[in-house]
Design goal:
Blueprint (H helix, E strand, L loop, with lengths): L2 H24 L8 H9 L8 E5 L5 H9 L5 E4 L3 H14 L4 E4 L11 E6 L3 H14 L5 E5 L10 E4 L7 E5 L3
Parallel strand pairs: 1-2, 1-4, 2-3, 4-5
Antiparallel strand pairs: 5-7, 6-7
């Protein structure tokens, strides 16, 4: 085994440990939205007022990148805590030369989201409860919130799209403003 092979294995091991540690800390692993879900979520942005789009828990960046490409006139911001997916997202952003996109390695629950007109998310039930609490505590009323798979607790969605997939995955659309 060469020194290069050992270095690659070491990097892969460290990346895996980082993702596992982050998953244990956050409570969920970085999971990309399916292509169908991304298309449905981006289609929901049609007619949304102009302004910043924020991807809450942007993972590997696939949704934020697709949004930035589809809406070059909008500022798109992705928040991700897990170091490896965040780094991959930043690298892809640079390779694709998307000046309207930025990724922040930060907890969106601690971020000021008051300038966001659209929130996109693929969280999990506990994450959605935290988001609902954050929206209420900060008095946030983004024009649109689009969530893959998980609903805001105690808030009826304005629309629920069912994807044409094995699970009939729901995409929840909330018009909050």
């Amino acid at each position: 085994m060469s020194l290069a092979d050992i270095a690659i294995l070491a990097l892969a091991f460290l990346a895996t440990v980082s993702i596992v540690a982050s998953t244990l800390r956050i409570g969920i692993s970085p999971m990309p939205s399916s292509a169908r879900a991304r298309r449905a979520m981006l289609a929901a942005l049609a007619g949304a007022p102009p302004g910043t789009v924020v991807d809450l828990g942007s993972g590997w960046g696939t949704l934020a990148i697709a949004c930035a490409r589809r809406h070059p006139g909008r500022t798109v911001v992705g928040y991700e805590l897990s170091w490896v997916p965040w780094a991959v997202s930043c690298l892809l952003k640079q390779l694709l030369r998307l000046p309207n996109l930025s990724f922040r390695r930060a907890d969106f629950r601690q971020a000021d989201l008051s300038n966001a007109s659209v929130l996109l998310c693929y969280l999990f039930p506990r994450g959605m409860r935290g988001l609902a609490d954050q929206l209420q505590a900060q008095g946030l009323r983004p024009a649109l919130l689009v969530s893959n798979t998980f609903a805001l607790p105690s808030v009826p969605a304005d629309e629920v799209l069912r994807l044409d997939d094995l699970y009939r995955t729901p995409v929840y659309i909330y018009r909050l403003a």
